[in-house]
Amino acid sequence: RTFRIAAIPADGVGPEVVAAGRTVLDALAARSGGAFAFDWTEFPWGCGYYEKTGLMMPEDGLDELADYDALYFGAVGWPSVPDHVSLWGLRLRICQNFDQWANVRPVRFHPGVVSPLRAADSTELDWVVVRENSEGEYAGLGGRNLAGRGPGNEVALQTALFTERGCERILRFAFDLARTRSEQKVSSVTKSNAQQYGMVLWDELFARVAPDYPDVATESVLVDAMSAKFVLHPEDLSVVVASNLNADILSDLGSALAGSLGLAASANLNPERRFPSMFEPVHGSAPDIAGRGVANPIGALGSAALMLDHFDLPAEAARLRAALDATTAAGVLTPDVGGSAGTDDVVGAVLDHLAG
Ligand code: NAI
Ligand code: MG
Questions:
Q1: Which residues line ligand 1 (CB under 6 A)?
Q2: pLDDT on residue 133
Q3: For residues 253 and 107, what is the distance between their CA atoms, to the nearest angstrom?
Q4: Which cofactors does the annotated protein need, by name (predicted)?
Q5: Cα 41 to chain center, whole Å?
Q6: In this structure, are residues 69 and 5 in contact, taking their beta carbons and an 8 Å threshold?
Q7: Where do the structural domains in the chain lie, given as residue ranges?
Q8: pLDDT band for position 356 (50/70/90)?
């Protein structure tokens, strides 16, 4: 079967890591003996496109993407465009309109990469952050210059949205995911002591849904305590489910604990499969290292593995993850994880392990 993939490399290191992913996925397809293939279309959207057109993507860009089997995304953002304009104009526009309400962000530790968490090998640790990806603090509700108060005395409002449907579906998604893992546990994260409406609704729904999964252990933890737990007791974690903002922050913490933001993979899923899902590294466009050939491609390659899972090719996904582990274990590491390899060196090592 041929999978049609829309690649949206966008800005900064995005094109460098998307190119890495395409190379590796095409190599996997080439050795599948015709069992599967990838048909790529690349869309030149992002901040460069904005400078030419005033838009991050064409008005009808979503229509252009709608029929692909998946979207493979790099990163968006460049200093020439305000970040809220670039993020909302491309990445969030896609996530929201394609109802990619579940963002799955595994925290994986890689052999050969020293984690700040422990000097010793942490590769036995792995947990996954499930992020509510359609509402919460990133619902886009609010406004500026409220009550007629202008510059110097401005009032701005940023409102979080919590719906029963939105919370319940992400909580059930987390429980279903926990059932596929060796440790069947869901940790729900809120700040319901201080945020007494939406977060309390979330907590209540968690308590209501949990009895449907009697085989899954549960805990409800405040986000500040959970951030400490990530550092002090990560072995207690399996599936961590949280709202849009809280999970965004926790997943960056998780990837930093694994060794670098450049390692972390993510999937923005439309679980009903009415719209394409989008696979992207957790990191941003990294303007400080863009164009130098040193971006860590492991996060983008791990995202490619999540895409293979989504295509129902679990053996291929496992093969790719094993090649990533073999590459880091052999010390082929980019500067962000203490090595001196370039992006291409990492890709070359991954290809060698896939061929071997
Ligand atoms: P960032 O993730 O781009 O960079 C943070 C730090 O991590 C930098 O020191 C960077 O060099 C390093 N880093 C990130 N990815 C790396 C990789 N693959 N290899 C090696 N090092 C890597 O976050 P920052 O600096 O806050 O944001 C930069 C731009 O990216 C902004 O415009 C922001 O809005 C955007 N952004 C986009 C995201 C997305 O497209 N999903 C997510 C986060 C930020
Ligand atoms: Mg983030």
A1: 13, 17, 75-77, 83, 87, 91, 261-262, 280, 283-289, 295-296, 299, 334, 336
A2: 96
A3: 9
A4: Mg(2+); Mn(2+)
A5: 21
A6: yes
A7: 1-106+260-356, 115-143+152-258
A8: confident
Please identify every residue whose CB atom is under 5 Å from ligand 2, which is an ion.
Answer: 248
Q: Which atom of ligand 1 is nearest to the CA of 288?
A: 11
Q: Tokens for 138?
A: 């990133």
Q: How far apart are CA 98 and CA 84, in angstroms?
A: 19
278-289 pLDDT per residue, tens:
999 999 999 999
Largest CA distance in the chain: 67
Tell me which of 261, 266, 279, 340 to substitute to probe ligand 1's pocket, judged by most ligand atoms within 8 Å of the beta carbon: 261
CATH code of the domain occupying 115-143+152-258 = 3.40.718.10
Angle subtended at Cα 219 by Cα 216 and Cα 221, rounded to the nearest 5 degrees:
150
Instruction: Say if domain 1-106+260-356 classifies as CATH 3.40.50.2300.
Output: no
**Encoded tokens for 231:** 């550092």
Q: What's the N-to-C CA distance of the chain in angstroms?
A: 25
Q: Is 224 a catalytic residue?
A: yes
- The predicted-structure confidence for 17-35, as pLDDT tens digits, reads as follows 999 999 999 999 999 999 9
Q: Do domains 1-106+260-356 and 115-143+152-258 have the same CATH topology?
A: yes
Rg (CA), the chain: 20
**Degrees to nearest 5, angle at CA 250 with 164 and 94:** 60
Measured CA to CA, the distance from residue 284 to residue 261 in angstroms comes to 9
Q: Which of 11, 69, 126, 248 does the annotation list as catalytic?
A: 248
> 114-125, pLDDT tens digit by residue?
888 765 456 677
Q: Which residues contact 189 (CB under 8 A, 6 or more apart)?
A: 220, 221, 222, 223, 226, 240, 241, 242, 243, 246, 247, 250
